[in-house]
Amino acid sequence: MAASYVRRLLDRLFGRGRSTDTASETDLKLLVENSRDVLCRLGPDFVVRYCSPSSTTVLGRPPEELVGQRPSAFVIEEDKPIILGEAERVVQGEDVKPLVLRTLKPDGVMAWVETSSRALRDPETGALVEIILVMRDVSERQALQMRLEREAVTDSLTGLANRRAFDETLEREWARAVRADTELSLILLDVDHFKPFNDRYGHHAGDACLRDVAKAIQDVVRRPGDLAARYGGEEIAVILPRTPPAGAAKVAEDLRLAIVNLAVPHSDSACGVLTASFGVATATGMVGQTIAMPDGLLIGADGALYRSKNKGRNRVETVTLLPPRRGVHAA
Hints:
By secondary structure, the protein is α+β, with helices and mostly antiparallel strands. The chain has two domains: 2-145, PAS domain (Beta-Lactamase, 2-Layer Sandwich), CATH 3.30.450.20; 153-330, 2-Layer Sandwich (Alpha-Beta Plaits), CATH 3.30.70.270. 40% of the residues lie in helices and 23% in strands. α8 (194-201) crosses α9. The N and C termini lie far apart (58 Å).
């Protein structure tokens, strides 16, 4: 919506095929005075020659601070290559699509701005004469979009990733493990005797219990790239990229202790408090040559979880899926 609005403003001021000479300074003044958007006039060298007063609100910087700089100075470091690439397309005479970029205001607040630009060329030589750049604050729209995207992959009860996010992440991390021939580990955990817990204490207490377990898991699984997800019901999965068997078993044991230390009363539990059983599976990219993956990782972790329950629950069982011709080793 913002992009189409900006394009209409540019078309009204600089109709397609019109040169700089026909651009009305009166129209420009009117546009600047009645728009909350930032309008900049750039020279062929992409240096700002004029900036409208609204830059103070949108960018947190007065016009005089921006004049003499290039637009790449307005955006955060990660977005500089994007705007530099668009500048190159302007020079080449290609159509430039609206961009959404991030800028950091002097007070430390991050703002999202949508930019649209129009290159003005000499009608006789085709030489680039001027670029008109319009920037609009779309921070609220972007925040809403990001919130909706988070909600789409988040379990509403626990705050962990949901099954959709888990499936997508497992596929992506397995593909990465294959490319780099690195290890990928998966933990499946199941809250012990959860149905009796719900029956005895009520579903409200059951929901609160799952939230407490999720929080304990998040406190342990903190490494960038790891993912904890609600796999289904009282079952939770943890994806651990680049993690060998011993490391994954250590994480699972830390999770087991964290849940025990919640000290949630559970009269149907052997130790009187809430516990969970764990199954851990680890594989390398080479395993995919003989075992269907990443389904094989899920099957391995589920089998280990089954053994954990059969051996009395509240314990960790592991399995390592080995490369071709070496079979499967359970520990």
